[in-house]
Amino acid sequence: MLQGGETTTMHSLFNTTHRGHDMAAVALPNMAERLARSRRRSTHEYRLDAGARSTEQVLSRSELSQLKDSNEHLLRAAVPGIDWLHQQLGDLGYCLLLTDFGGATLEVRASGQRVDQFSSAGLREGACWSEPNQGTCGVGTAIADKAPVLVHGDQHYLLQNHSISCAAVPMFGPAQQLLGVLNATACTHDAQKFGQALAYRLTLQTAARIEQSIFMSHYSEYWIARVKRQLDDWEAEPDDLIAFDECGRVVGASWRLKQRLGQQEWRIEDILDCSVEGLIDFACAHPGTPLRVAASGGDGALFAQINAPRRAARRSSATPAPPEVKRTIPGAGDATEDLRRLERLLNAKVPILLLGETGSGKEFNAKIIHARSRRRDQPFIAINCAAIPETLIESELFGYREGAFTGARAKGCVGKIAQADGGTLFLDEIGDMPLALQTRLLRVLAEGEVLALGADKPRTVDISVICATHRDLSAMVRDGLFREDLYYRLNAATVRLPPLRERDDVAELIRSVFAEECKIASRSLSMSPHVEDGLLVYQWPGNIRELRNVLRYAIAVCPSEEVGWADLPENFRAQVPETVNDRRRAHLPGSGGSGQPSESDIILSALKRTQWCVSAASRFLGVSRSTLYRRLNEHGIEVPPK
Ligand SMILES: Nc1ncnc2c1ncn2[C@@H]1O[C@H](COP(=O)(O)OP(=O)(O)OP(=O)(O)O)[C@@H](O)[C@H]1O
Question: Atom 1 of ligand 1 has which residue's CA nearest to it?
């Protein structure tokens, strides 16, 4: 968040002159000074003899293969880049090197006839180009300085390297950690000034794209804003990247921007002058189109391309899980806003996970989200994994061909997944899905294809998925009962539905469910205040389902125009003593009642029943919050902090 007195303006956050290096400039600032420092390190720290041949350090095949495994993410992102760079520079006599953060060479690209020449100069897989090993050199000095470097001919420390010329660019990960170095090397007689300038610029651009690709895949489950100043060089300039969640919390930024943002917490609206809803709405309506935005607090125009979270992101165990996005639908007012967000997420095919106790409205909300989404005219198919015997879930979900198993229907059966094609699949009680089926479901979500039992060809399906459970899925993952990869795929947007007793709109809900049930029963009834109070104070272990049942019962048995205490189900009345309500009327406010029990007893009882929520207790007691606070003071009752 932007603090008062903060000197960094939003404008300067995206000012290209603040970049770590200028993409257009070839002359590197302080290069001579940096090379001199590197020479001193080579002599005094590493005690290298410039004239002696370095004892060549090359990794064995198995060491190299291990190193490649541990640099899997870097290699996956960098190989297309190094191939592209080789196409541009290979004919100019350049050899390309990708090293890890310690200078060990992971990949080499060199054109046919020069391979031997480069190899005998030490430019080959497994060779180590660290400064302690080679003295001043492209890769080693770029690692030591954590900055791009140009080292030409005799600027190299070792005599044996005087025949080469290097442009080396270090690359950094989302946590600003050094990942490795991209390096272009030519033999000096090839490396004309023109060639060297071009090689440097292209290496810089390719390294920036590799960093970008690593960032995008690291934060693939978040919204990502790719921000730049000018549209026309969209391809050439590295974008500033900002990853944010659907609540607008910034969870990551590309390393150059991160250096400018510092360690404080940011929201996307603090950086770009646009609400998170505005950005997400635009991205859903115009995928891939850059949006013109201003920098918050600055006057510069920017372009932001917003990438939606990837629905098919597979999480490898090496990538740390991003923190879960957890939202609560607290009450009717906020719920509208939350549902709008969820509807947008469903449109973007981001799976939604609804958590909540039984009867708290998981299916009810899933239907609302679907009904508000672009898929509203397509099917909403629900399946309750806890309600179907384990042996039948598979055929229910995936369907089967005729004769797939004994007892199968003659014509086969279209499964729920295929029925939901084009619409929404609601998987209730996902925590009860057997492990083997979790694997099959994961494949459907990853590949968008479903294979019916006994079928030989899969069918392509386009489904949005909403799951629900009352179980603690992360604990189930820990205990090996739920697949970790499925869990991460399903929990991109997790929403917790609070139990009725914790909601701050209980009174409104009672009224609206009462009105609905009256309509269903074709009766026009009112509710006595006595009943309303009782409903308000009850703890509702069965949540809204229980509330609906209690009201349905009362409406059905009510002999008059007003639902009274006697109309409520007996077991409900047994748990909410009528006297609580009578006492309330006798004592507060300022009623001059019988004096037993005391006013403080009544207040304490109301607070306990409302779990020490002053607003709810004041509603229960029928007094304003300020009156209740005054009385609390008078009686010396302290409300414990939440
Ligand atoms: N916001 C709401 N307004 C009115 N009625 C609601 C609301 N939320 C839930 N209900 C009602 O409560 C009952 C239970 O809701 P629902 O079936 O969605 O709960 P659930 O959390 O899916 O329960 P379970 O986990 O047992 O399947 C339904 O009758 C539903 O109509």
Answer: 361
